[in-house]
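Would you kindly consider the sequence and fold I have copied below?
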Amino acid sequence: MAIKKLIECVPNFSEGRDMAVIRQITAEIESVEGVKLLDVDPGKATNRTVVTFVGEPEPVVQAAFLAIKKAAEVIDMGKHKGEHPRMGATDVCPLVPVANITLEECAQWAHKLGEMAGSQLDIPFYMYEYAATKPERRNLATIRAGEYEALPEKLKQPEWKPDYGPAMFNPRAGATVIGARDFLVAYNVNLNTTSERRANSVAFDVREQGRVKREGDPVSGKIIMDENGQPAREPGACKAVKAIGWYIAEYGVAQVSMNLTNIDMTPLHLAFEECCKSAERRGMRVTGSELVGLVPLRVMLEAGRYFLKKQKCSTGVSEEELIHIAVKSLGLDELSPFDPQKKIIEYLLAEEGDRRLINMNLRAFANETAKDIPAPGGGSISAYVGALGASLGTMVANLSAGKRGWDDRLEEFSAWAEKGQRLKDGLLALVDEDTRAFNQIMAAFRLPKGSDAEKAARKQAIQDATRYAIETPLRTMELAFAVFELAEAMVKEGNPNSVSDAGVGALCARAAVHGAWMNVKINTSSMADKALAAGFLRKAEGIASKTDEWERRIVKLVEERM
Protein backbone atom coordinates (compact mmCIF):
# COMPACT_ATOMS: atom_id res chain seq x y z
CA MET A 1 0.00 0.00 0.00
CA ALA A 2 1.30 3.48 -0.90
CA ILE A 3 2.34 5.66 2.02
CA LYS A 4 0.33 8.87 2.03
CA LYS A 5 1.71 12.25 2.97
CA LEU A 6 -0.84 13.83 5.26
CA ILE A 7 -1.04 17.43 6.38
CA GLU A 8 -3.48 19.20 8.63
CA CYS A 9 -4.81 22.67 7.96
CA VAL A 10 -6.18 24.73 10.86
CA PRO A 11 -7.58 28.01 9.51
CA ASN A 12 -9.08 30.49 11.99
CA PHE A 13 -12.02 32.48 10.62
CA SER A 14 -13.26 35.73 12.14
CA GLU A 15 -16.82 34.54 12.68
CA GLY A 16 -17.96 32.49 15.64
CA ARG A 17 -21.62 33.39 16.06
CA ASP A 18 -23.42 33.00 12.72
CA MET A 19 -23.47 29.28 11.94
CA ALA A 20 -24.94 29.92 8.49
CA VAL A 21 -21.80 31.85 7.55
CA ILE A 22 -19.53 29.20 9.07
CA ARG A 23 -21.35 26.43 7.18
CA GLN A 24 -20.80 28.23 3.88
CA ILE A 25 -17.06 28.19 4.52
CA THR A 26 -16.88 24.57 5.66
CA ALA A 27 -19.00 23.50 2.67
CA GLU A 28 -16.20 24.74 0.41
CA ILE A 29 -13.70 22.60 2.31
CA GLU A 30 -15.91 19.52 2.12
CA SER A 31 -16.39 19.99 -1.62
CA VAL A 32 -12.79 18.94 -2.29
CA GLU A 33 -12.30 15.21 -2.78
CA GLY A 34 -9.57 13.73 -0.60
CA VAL A 35 -10.08 16.15 2.29
CA LYS A 36 -11.65 15.15 5.62
CA LEU A 37 -13.19 17.86 7.78
CA LEU A 38 -12.32 16.91 11.34
CA ASP A 39 -13.53 19.70 13.56
CA VAL A 40 -15.41 23.01 13.56
CA ASP A 41 -15.02 24.88 16.85
CA PRO A 42 -16.87 28.23 17.00
CA GLY A 43 -16.47 30.63 19.92
CA LYS A 44 -19.13 33.28 20.59
CA ALA A 45 -17.07 35.51 22.86
CA THR A 46 -14.02 35.44 20.59
CA ASN A 47 -16.26 35.61 17.50
CA ARG A 48 -13.86 33.20 15.88
CA THR A 49 -14.06 29.67 14.51
CA VAL A 50 -11.17 27.21 14.41
CA VAL A 51 -11.61 24.67 11.60
CA THR A 52 -9.48 21.55 11.23
CA PHE A 53 -9.22 19.39 8.12
CA VAL A 54 -6.69 16.87 6.86
CA GLY A 55 -5.63 15.14 3.67
CA GLU A 56 -2.82 14.90 1.15
CA PRO A 57 -1.08 18.21 0.41
CA GLU A 58 -2.60 19.12 -2.96
CA PRO A 59 -6.29 18.73 -2.03
CA VAL A 60 -5.68 20.39 1.36
CA VAL A 61 -4.16 23.45 -0.34
CA GLN A 62 -7.08 23.58 -2.79
CA ALA A 63 -9.59 23.37 0.07
CA ALA A 64 -7.76 26.09 2.00
CA PHE A 65 -7.83 28.38 -1.02
CA LEU A 66 -11.58 27.90 -1.49
CA ALA A 67 -12.20 28.52 2.22
CA ILE A 68 -10.15 31.74 2.19
CA LYS A 69 -12.02 32.91 -0.90
CA LYS A 70 -15.44 32.16 0.60
CA ALA A 71 -14.55 33.78 3.94
CA ALA A 72 -13.66 36.99 2.10
CA GLU A 73 -17.12 36.93 0.53
CA VAL A 74 -19.24 36.21 3.61
CA ILE A 75 -17.32 37.97 6.45
CA ASP A 76 -17.08 41.75 6.73
CA MET A 77 -14.12 42.67 8.91
CA GLY A 78 -15.33 46.27 9.10
CA LYS A 79 -18.10 45.00 11.40
CA HIS A 80 -16.13 42.40 13.35
CA LYS A 81 -15.74 42.54 17.12
CA GLY A 82 -14.31 39.80 19.33
CA GLU A 83 -12.02 39.03 22.24
CA HIS A 84 -9.31 37.35 20.16
CA PRO A 85 -6.64 39.33 18.25
CA ARG A 86 -7.42 39.27 14.51
CA MET A 87 -6.55 40.96 11.24
CA GLY A 88 -8.53 39.18 8.54
CA ALA A 89 -11.65 37.26 7.58
CA THR A 90 -9.34 34.27 7.38
CA ASP A 91 -7.03 35.40 10.14
CA VAL A 92 -4.42 32.67 10.07
CA CYS A 93 -4.05 29.51 7.99
CA PRO A 94 -1.27 27.16 9.12
CA LEU A 95 -0.29 23.84 7.53
CA VAL A 96 0.86 21.17 9.98
CA PRO A 97 2.68 17.89 9.22
CA VAL A 98 0.68 14.84 10.31
CA ALA A 99 2.29 11.82 8.61
CA ASN A 100 5.22 11.11 6.27
CA ILE A 101 5.94 14.77 5.52
CA THR A 102 8.42 17.28 6.92
CA LEU A 103 7.93 20.82 8.14
CA GLU A 104 10.08 22.01 5.26
CA GLU A 105 7.73 20.35 2.76
CA CYS A 106 4.75 21.89 4.56
CA ALA A 107 6.42 25.30 4.19
CA GLN A 108 6.72 24.74 0.43
CA TRP A 109 3.02 23.91 0.22
CA ALA A 110 2.23 27.01 2.31
CA HIS A 111 4.01 29.14 -0.30
CA LYS A 112 2.06 27.42 -3.09
CA LEU A 113 -1.13 28.37 -1.24
CA GLY A 114 0.09 31.95 -0.74
CA GLU A 115 1.05 32.28 -4.38
CA MET A 116 -2.28 30.89 -5.61
CA ALA A 117 -4.37 33.02 -3.27
CA GLY A 118 -2.25 36.14 -3.77
CA SER A 119 -2.60 35.96 -7.55
CA GLN A 120 -6.37 35.40 -7.55
CA LEU A 121 -7.71 37.30 -4.53
CA ASP A 122 -7.37 40.99 -3.64
CA ILE A 123 -6.04 40.16 -0.18
CA PRO A 124 -2.56 40.77 1.33
CA PHE A 125 -0.89 37.57 2.51
CA TYR A 126 1.96 37.24 4.99
CA MET A 127 3.98 34.06 5.59
CA TYR A 128 4.92 33.06 9.14
CA GLU A 129 6.68 30.42 11.29
CA TYR A 130 8.57 27.90 9.11
CA ALA A 131 7.28 29.54 5.90
CA ALA A 132 8.42 33.06 6.93
CA THR A 133 10.38 35.02 4.32
CA LYS A 134 12.02 37.24 6.95
CA PRO A 135 13.12 36.47 10.53
CA GLU A 136 10.95 39.30 11.88
CA ARG A 137 7.87 37.72 10.30
CA ARG A 138 8.31 34.35 11.95
CA ASN A 139 6.17 35.29 14.95
CA LEU A 140 2.43 35.54 14.31
CA ALA A 141 1.96 38.13 17.06
CA THR A 142 4.50 40.43 15.37
CA ILE A 143 2.67 40.29 12.04
CA ARG A 144 -0.72 40.76 13.69
CA ALA A 145 0.38 43.68 15.93
CA GLY A 146 -2.18 46.48 15.71
CA GLU A 147 -4.70 43.98 14.29
CA TYR A 148 -7.18 44.81 11.54
CA GLU A 149 -7.45 48.47 12.56
CA ALA A 150 -3.74 49.07 11.90
CA LEU A 151 -3.71 47.59 8.39
CA PRO A 152 -4.43 50.77 6.34
CA GLU A 153 -1.26 52.47 7.62
CA LYS A 154 0.77 49.29 7.98
CA LEU A 155 0.35 48.37 4.32
CA LYS A 156 1.83 51.72 3.28
CA GLN A 157 5.12 50.88 4.99
CA PRO A 158 7.75 49.19 2.74
CA GLU A 159 8.81 46.83 5.54
CA TRP A 160 5.25 45.50 5.68
CA LYS A 161 4.83 44.77 2.01
CA PRO A 162 2.89 41.46 1.81
CA ASP A 163 4.65 38.29 0.69
CA TYR A 164 1.82 37.64 -1.77
CA GLY A 165 -1.13 39.69 -2.98
CA PRO A 166 -1.49 43.48 -3.24
CA ALA A 167 -0.09 45.98 -0.73
CA MET A 168 -3.54 47.50 -0.53
CA PHE A 169 -6.05 47.59 2.30
CA ASN A 170 -9.04 45.29 1.72
CA PRO A 171 -11.66 46.70 4.15
CA ARG A 172 -13.86 43.62 3.91
CA ALA A 173 -11.29 40.78 4.06
CA GLY A 174 -8.40 42.42 5.91
CA ALA A 175 -5.17 40.39 5.62
CA THR A 176 -4.33 36.72 6.10
CA VAL A 177 -1.29 35.01 7.57
CA ILE A 178 -0.29 31.65 6.04
CA GLY A 179 2.41 29.39 7.38
CA ALA A 180 3.79 26.01 8.36
CA ARG A 181 4.23 25.06 11.98
CA ASP A 182 4.53 22.20 14.41
CA PHE A 183 1.38 20.85 15.98
CA LEU A 184 -0.05 23.65 18.13
CA VAL A 185 -2.43 23.01 20.98
CA ALA A 186 -4.83 25.86 21.73
CA TYR A 187 -5.68 25.52 25.39
CA ASN A 188 -7.56 27.67 27.92
CA VAL A 189 -7.37 27.30 31.71
CA ASN A 190 -10.36 28.51 33.75
CA LEU A 191 -9.93 30.58 36.92
CA ASN A 192 -12.34 31.31 39.76
CA THR A 193 -12.24 35.02 39.00
CA THR A 194 -13.82 37.44 36.57
CA SER A 195 -10.77 39.72 36.58
CA GLU A 196 -8.97 39.89 33.24
CA ARG A 197 -6.08 41.68 34.95
CA ARG A 198 -5.59 38.82 37.41
CA ALA A 199 -5.85 36.25 34.61
CA ASN A 200 -3.14 38.17 32.77
CA SER A 201 -0.93 38.00 35.85
CA VAL A 202 -1.11 34.20 35.68
CA ALA A 203 -0.50 34.26 31.92
CA PHE A 204 2.64 36.35 32.43
CA ASP A 205 3.88 33.89 35.07
CA VAL A 206 3.41 30.97 32.71
CA ARG A 207 4.27 32.13 29.18
CA GLU A 208 7.83 31.92 27.90
CA GLN A 209 7.98 35.66 27.19
CA GLY A 210 7.13 36.37 30.80
CA ARG A 211 6.64 39.99 31.83
CA VAL A 212 8.46 43.32 31.64
CA LYS A 213 10.62 44.01 34.69
CA ARG A 214 9.65 47.08 36.72
CA GLU A 215 11.01 48.91 39.71
CA GLY A 216 8.86 48.54 42.81
CA ASP A 217 5.24 47.98 41.84
CA PRO A 218 5.04 45.17 39.19
CA VAL A 219 2.17 46.97 37.42
CA SER A 220 2.87 50.70 37.66
CA GLY A 221 6.58 50.77 38.51
CA LYS A 222 9.15 52.22 36.16
CA ILE A 223 10.23 49.82 33.41
CA ILE A 224 13.78 48.49 33.78
CA MET A 225 15.81 48.68 30.55
CA ASP A 226 18.50 46.20 29.51
CA GLU A 227 21.97 47.01 28.15
CA ASN A 228 20.51 47.44 24.63
CA GLY A 229 17.97 49.98 25.77
CA GLN A 230 15.11 47.49 25.46
CA PRO A 231 12.66 46.65 28.27
CA ALA A 232 14.17 43.89 30.39
CA ARG A 233 11.97 40.82 30.80
CA GLU A 234 11.48 38.23 33.49
CA PRO A 235 10.88 34.93 31.65
CA GLY A 236 7.89 32.78 32.51
CA ALA A 237 7.85 29.16 33.65
CA CYS A 238 6.99 27.41 30.36
CA LYS A 239 9.07 27.27 27.20
CA ALA A 240 7.21 27.39 23.85
CA VAL A 241 4.05 28.76 25.45
CA LYS A 242 2.25 31.95 24.44
CA ALA A 243 -0.46 33.19 26.80
CA ILE A 244 -2.81 36.05 27.57
CA GLY A 245 -5.59 36.50 30.11
CA TRP A 246 -9.15 37.36 29.17
CA TYR A 247 -12.69 37.40 30.52
CA ILE A 248 -15.28 35.23 28.76
CA ALA A 249 -18.78 36.55 29.44
CA GLU A 250 -20.30 33.39 27.90
CA TYR A 251 -18.84 31.34 30.76
CA GLY A 252 -18.69 34.07 33.41
CA VAL A 253 -15.02 33.34 34.16
CA ALA A 254 -11.60 34.66 33.29
CA GLN A 255 -9.23 32.32 31.47
CA VAL A 256 -5.55 31.97 30.73
CA SER A 257 -5.57 31.41 26.97
CA MET A 258 -2.50 29.57 25.79
CA ASN A 259 -0.93 28.34 22.56
CA LEU A 260 1.45 25.44 23.22
CA THR A 261 3.77 25.62 20.21
CA ASN A 262 6.01 22.69 21.16
CA ILE A 263 4.25 19.97 23.15
CA ASP A 264 7.51 18.07 23.61
CA MET A 265 9.06 21.06 25.35
CA THR A 266 5.98 21.93 27.44
CA PRO A 267 3.29 19.23 27.54
CA LEU A 268 -0.32 20.19 28.20
CA HIS A 269 -0.36 18.87 31.76
CA LEU A 270 2.72 20.87 32.76
CA ALA A 271 1.23 24.10 31.41
CA PHE A 272 -1.89 23.32 33.44
CA GLU A 273 0.15 22.65 36.58
CA GLU A 274 2.05 25.93 36.24
CA CYS A 275 -1.27 27.80 35.95
CA CYS A 276 -2.42 26.04 39.13
CA LYS A 277 0.75 27.07 40.99
CA SER A 278 0.55 30.69 39.84
CA ALA A 279 -3.17 30.96 40.61
CA GLU A 280 -2.68 29.56 44.11
CA ARG A 281 0.16 32.01 44.84
CA ARG A 282 -2.18 34.83 43.84
CA GLY A 283 -5.12 33.64 45.93
CA MET A 284 -7.05 32.11 43.04
CA ARG A 285 -7.88 28.58 42.00
CA VAL A 286 -7.94 26.79 38.65
CA THR A 287 -11.41 25.24 38.21
CA GLY A 288 -10.93 23.44 34.89
CA SER A 289 -9.78 23.93 31.33
CA GLU A 290 -10.85 23.57 27.70
CA LEU A 291 -9.22 22.44 24.47
CA VAL A 292 -9.90 24.55 21.39
CA GLY A 293 -9.81 22.37 18.29
CA LEU A 294 -8.11 18.99 18.28
CA VAL A 295 -5.32 17.35 20.22
CA PRO A 296 -2.98 14.43 19.39
CA LEU A 297 -3.71 11.24 21.30
CA ARG A 298 -0.28 11.21 22.95
CA VAL A 299 -1.01 14.51 24.69
CA MET A 300 -3.93 12.95 26.52
CA LEU A 301 -2.07 9.72 27.29
CA GLU A 302 0.93 11.59 28.69
CA ALA A 303 -1.39 13.68 30.87
CA GLY A 304 -3.17 10.59 32.16
CA ARG A 305 0.13 8.92 33.09
CA TYR A 306 1.39 12.10 34.76
CA PHE A 307 -1.63 12.36 37.05
CA LEU A 308 -1.61 8.64 37.85
CA LYS A 309 2.04 8.94 38.90
CA LYS A 310 1.09 11.84 41.17
CA GLN A 311 -1.51 9.55 42.76
CA LYS A 312 1.13 6.81 43.15
CA CYS A 313 -0.93 4.51 40.94
CA SER A 314 0.14 2.20 38.11
CA THR A 315 0.31 3.91 34.73
CA GLY A 316 -0.23 0.62 32.92
CA VAL A 317 -3.95 1.12 32.41
CA SER A 318 -5.97 1.14 29.21
CA GLU A 319 -5.95 3.98 26.72
CA GLU A 320 -9.54 4.77 27.65
CA GLU A 321 -8.71 4.96 31.35
CA LEU A 322 -5.71 7.23 30.72
CA ILE A 323 -7.93 9.61 28.74
CA HIS A 324 -10.59 9.53 31.47
CA ILE A 325 -8.00 10.40 34.13
CA ALA A 326 -6.63 13.22 31.96
CA VAL A 327 -10.09 14.70 31.35
CA LYS A 328 -11.01 14.64 35.03
CA SER A 329 -7.63 15.88 36.27
CA LEU A 330 -7.52 18.78 33.81
CA GLY A 331 -11.23 19.56 34.22
CA LEU A 332 -11.73 19.41 30.46
CA ASP A 333 -15.44 18.72 30.94
CA GLU A 334 -16.14 21.71 33.20
CA LEU A 335 -17.57 24.05 30.53
CA SER A 336 -18.94 21.43 28.12
CA PRO A 337 -18.82 17.65 27.67
CA PHE A 338 -15.49 16.32 26.39
CA ASP A 339 -15.92 13.66 23.71
CA PRO A 340 -12.59 11.94 22.92
CA GLN A 341 -13.99 10.68 19.61
CA LYS A 342 -14.47 14.27 18.47
CA LYS A 343 -11.44 15.92 20.07
CA ILE A 344 -8.56 13.49 19.48
CA ILE A 345 -7.14 13.65 15.98
CA GLU A 346 -6.22 9.97 15.63
CA TYR A 347 -9.76 8.91 16.51
CA LEU A 348 -11.22 11.23 13.90
CA LEU A 349 -8.78 10.01 11.24
CA ALA A 350 -9.62 6.35 11.83
CA GLU A 351 -11.78 4.87 9.09
CA GLU A 352 -15.12 3.51 10.24
CA GLY A 353 -14.11 -0.09 9.49
CA ASP A 354 -10.74 0.08 11.23
CA ARG A 355 -12.14 -1.08 14.59
CA ARG A 356 -15.36 -2.78 13.48
CA LEU A 357 -14.65 -6.12 15.14
CA ILE A 358 -13.00 -4.98 18.36
CA ASN A 359 -15.79 -2.50 18.95
CA MET A 360 -18.27 -5.37 19.10
CA ASN A 361 -19.29 -6.92 22.40
CA LEU A 362 -18.17 -10.48 23.10
CA ARG A 363 -21.41 -12.09 21.96
CA ALA A 364 -21.59 -10.07 18.74
CA PHE A 365 -17.96 -10.94 17.90
CA ALA A 366 -18.59 -14.64 18.55
CA ASN A 367 -21.74 -14.52 16.42
CA GLU A 368 -19.91 -12.72 13.61
CA THR A 369 -17.17 -15.38 13.65
CA ALA A 370 -19.75 -18.20 13.57
CA LYS A 371 -21.44 -16.91 10.38
CA ASP A 372 -21.10 -18.72 7.05
CA ILE A 373 -18.48 -16.23 5.84
CA PRO A 374 -14.69 -16.79 5.77
CA ALA A 375 -13.74 -13.66 7.72
CA PRO A 376 -13.24 -13.02 10.58
CA GLY A 377 -11.44 -16.33 10.82
CA GLY A 378 -8.46 -17.97 12.45
CA GLY A 379 -6.16 -14.99 11.98
CA SER A 380 -8.45 -12.55 13.76
CA ILE A 381 -9.17 -15.04 16.52
CA SER A 382 -5.44 -15.68 17.00
CA ALA A 383 -4.82 -11.96 17.41
CA TYR A 384 -7.68 -11.68 19.89
CA VAL A 385 -6.49 -14.65 21.95
CA GLY A 386 -3.05 -13.04 22.06
CA ALA A 387 -4.63 -9.79 23.26
CA LEU A 388 -6.35 -11.68 26.07
CA GLY A 389 -3.02 -13.20 27.07
CA ALA A 390 -1.43 -9.75 27.20
CA SER A 391 -4.40 -8.49 29.21
CA LEU A 392 -3.95 -11.21 31.83
CA GLY A 393 -0.26 -10.40 32.22
CA THR A 394 -1.11 -6.72 32.51
CA MET A 395 -3.75 -7.46 35.14
CA VAL A 396 -1.19 -9.26 37.31
CA ALA A 397 1.25 -6.36 36.87
CA ASN A 398 -1.38 -3.85 37.99
CA LEU A 399 -2.44 -6.00 40.95
CA SER A 400 1.20 -6.24 41.95
CA ALA A 401 1.70 -2.47 41.59
CA GLY A 402 -1.21 -1.89 43.96
CA LYS A 403 -0.33 -4.63 46.46
CA ARG A 404 -0.08 -3.40 50.05
CA GLY A 405 3.50 -3.37 51.29
CA TRP A 406 4.95 -3.36 47.75
CA ASP A 407 5.00 0.44 47.39
CA ASP A 408 8.72 0.46 46.59
CA ARG A 409 8.03 -1.72 43.51
CA LEU A 410 5.34 0.49 42.00
CA GLU A 411 7.57 1.76 39.20
CA GLU A 412 8.76 -1.76 38.31
CA PHE A 413 5.27 -3.23 37.94
CA SER A 414 3.89 -0.08 36.35
CA ALA A 415 6.49 -0.46 33.57
CA TRP A 416 5.45 -4.09 33.01
CA ALA A 417 1.78 -3.05 32.90
CA GLU A 418 2.56 -0.36 30.31
CA LYS A 419 4.33 -2.94 28.17
CA GLY A 420 1.34 -5.26 28.48
CA GLN A 421 -1.03 -2.50 27.40
CA ARG A 422 1.08 -1.84 24.30
CA LEU A 423 1.05 -5.54 23.38
CA LYS A 424 -2.69 -5.78 24.01
CA ASP A 425 -3.46 -2.72 21.86
CA GLY A 426 -1.19 -3.93 19.05
CA LEU A 427 -2.85 -7.34 18.98
CA LEU A 428 -6.35 -5.86 19.15
CA ALA A 429 -5.56 -3.73 16.09
CA LEU A 430 -4.55 -6.93 14.26
CA VAL A 431 -7.99 -8.47 14.87
CA ASP A 432 -9.47 -6.12 12.29
CA GLU A 433 -6.26 -5.95 10.26
CA ASP A 434 -6.34 -9.67 9.56
CA THR A 435 -9.91 -9.51 8.27
CA ARG A 436 -8.98 -6.49 6.15
CA ALA A 437 -6.05 -8.44 4.68
CA PHE A 438 -8.34 -11.31 3.67
CA ASN A 439 -10.81 -8.89 2.10
CA GLN A 440 -8.03 -7.33 0.05
CA ILE A 441 -7.18 -10.74 -1.44
CA MET A 442 -10.83 -11.29 -2.35
CA ALA A 443 -11.01 -7.82 -3.92
CA ALA A 444 -7.88 -8.51 -5.97
CA PHE A 445 -9.34 -11.76 -7.36
CA ARG A 446 -12.45 -9.83 -8.47
CA LEU A 447 -10.45 -7.43 -10.64
CA PRO A 448 -11.06 -7.62 -14.44
CA LYS A 449 -8.76 -9.88 -16.47
CA GLY A 450 -9.73 -9.20 -20.05
CA SER A 451 -6.74 -7.42 -21.62
CA ASP A 452 -3.08 -8.22 -21.03
CA ALA A 453 -2.72 -5.01 -19.00
CA GLU A 454 -5.69 -5.95 -16.82
CA LYS A 455 -4.30 -9.44 -16.29
CA ALA A 456 -0.92 -8.03 -15.24
CA ALA A 457 -2.53 -5.53 -12.88
CA ARG A 458 -4.73 -8.23 -11.37
CA LYS A 459 -1.78 -10.58 -10.88
CA GLN A 460 0.22 -7.86 -9.15
CA ALA A 461 -2.72 -6.89 -6.93
CA ILE A 462 -3.16 -10.52 -5.86
CA GLN A 463 0.52 -10.80 -4.94
CA ASP A 464 0.49 -7.50 -3.05
CA ALA A 465 -2.61 -8.56 -1.12
CA THR A 466 -1.10 -11.98 -0.39
CA ARG A 467 2.03 -10.37 1.03
CA TYR A 468 -0.15 -8.18 3.24
CA ALA A 469 -2.04 -11.30 4.36
CA ILE A 470 1.29 -12.90 5.38
CA GLU A 471 2.79 -9.87 7.11
CA THR A 472 -0.31 -9.41 9.26
CA PRO A 473 -0.29 -12.82 11.01
CA LEU A 474 3.50 -12.64 11.18
CA ARG A 475 3.10 -9.47 13.20
CA THR A 476 0.56 -11.29 15.39
CA MET A 477 3.20 -13.98 16.02
CA GLU A 478 5.80 -11.38 17.03
CA LEU A 479 3.53 -9.56 19.46
CA ALA A 480 2.05 -12.73 20.96
CA PHE A 481 5.54 -14.15 21.45
CA ALA A 482 6.48 -10.97 23.37
CA VAL A 483 3.66 -11.79 25.84
CA PHE A 484 5.77 -14.69 27.21
CA GLU A 485 8.33 -12.33 28.74
CA LEU A 486 5.56 -10.46 30.54
CA ALA A 487 3.84 -13.66 31.69
CA GLU A 488 7.06 -15.21 32.99
CA ALA A 489 8.02 -12.05 34.89
CA MET A 490 4.61 -11.94 36.53
CA VAL A 491 4.78 -15.63 37.49
CA LYS A 492 8.21 -15.11 39.05
CA GLU A 493 7.84 -11.63 40.56
CA GLY A 494 4.16 -10.72 40.59
CA ASN A 495 1.39 -10.99 43.13
CA PRO A 496 1.45 -14.68 44.20
CA ASN A 497 -2.35 -14.72 44.46
CA SER A 498 -2.57 -14.19 40.69
CA VAL A 499 0.10 -16.59 39.48
CA SER A 500 -2.43 -18.80 37.67
CA ASP A 501 -3.73 -15.78 35.72
CA ALA A 502 -0.25 -15.14 34.37
CA GLY A 503 -0.04 -18.82 33.42
CA VAL A 504 -3.30 -18.64 31.48
CA GLY A 505 -1.88 -15.58 29.72
CA ALA A 506 1.06 -17.71 28.54
CA LEU A 507 -1.32 -20.42 27.26
CA CYS A 508 -3.22 -17.77 25.30
CA ALA A 509 0.04 -16.46 23.83
CA ARG A 510 0.98 -19.96 22.65
CA ALA A 511 -2.42 -20.42 20.96
CA ALA A 512 -2.02 -17.02 19.26
CA VAL A 513 1.46 -17.82 17.93
CA HIS A 514 0.48 -21.22 16.53
CA GLY A 515 -2.82 -19.96 15.13
CA ALA A 516 -1.12 -17.11 13.29
CA TRP A 517 1.62 -19.51 12.17
CA MET A 518 -1.02 -21.56 10.32
CA ASN A 519 -2.12 -18.43 8.46
CA VAL A 520 1.46 -17.60 7.46
CA LYS A 521 1.98 -21.11 6.09
CA ILE A 522 -1.22 -21.25 4.08
CA ASN A 523 -0.70 -17.81 2.53
CA THR A 524 2.98 -18.28 1.62
CA SER A 525 1.95 -21.26 -0.52
CA SER A 526 0.15 -18.80 -2.83
CA MET A 527 3.10 -16.45 -3.32
CA ALA A 528 4.67 -16.27 -6.79
CA ASP A 529 7.94 -14.93 -5.33
CA LYS A 530 9.23 -18.13 -3.75
CA ALA A 531 12.38 -16.51 -2.33
CA LEU A 532 10.29 -13.93 -0.48
CA ALA A 533 7.91 -16.64 0.70
CA ALA A 534 10.85 -18.68 2.02
CA GLY A 535 12.07 -15.64 3.97
CA PHE A 536 8.67 -15.21 5.61
CA LEU A 537 8.59 -18.91 6.49
CA ARG A 538 12.04 -18.84 8.08
CA LYS A 539 11.09 -15.87 10.24
CA ALA A 540 7.82 -17.50 11.33
CA GLU A 541 9.49 -20.83 12.03
CA GLY A 542 12.07 -19.08 14.20
CA ILE A 543 9.29 -17.67 16.40
CA ALA A 544 7.19 -20.85 16.47
CA SER A 545 10.18 -23.08 17.37
CA LYS A 546 10.75 -21.19 20.65
CA THR A 547 7.10 -20.93 21.64
CA ASP A 548 6.39 -24.38 23.07
CA GLU A 549 9.56 -24.40 25.16
CA TRP A 550 8.77 -21.03 26.73
CA GLU A 551 5.16 -21.99 27.40
CA ARG A 552 6.23 -25.25 29.12
CA ARG A 553 8.73 -23.36 31.28
CA ILE A 554 6.09 -20.88 32.42
CA VAL A 555 3.51 -23.60 33.17
CA LYS A 556 6.13 -25.43 35.26
CA LEU A 557 6.85 -22.21 37.19
CA VAL A 558 3.13 -21.71 37.81
CA GLU A 559 2.77 -25.23 39.21
CA GLU A 560 5.76 -24.68 41.50
CA ARG A 561 4.35 -21.43 42.90
CA MET A 562 0.75 -22.60 43.36
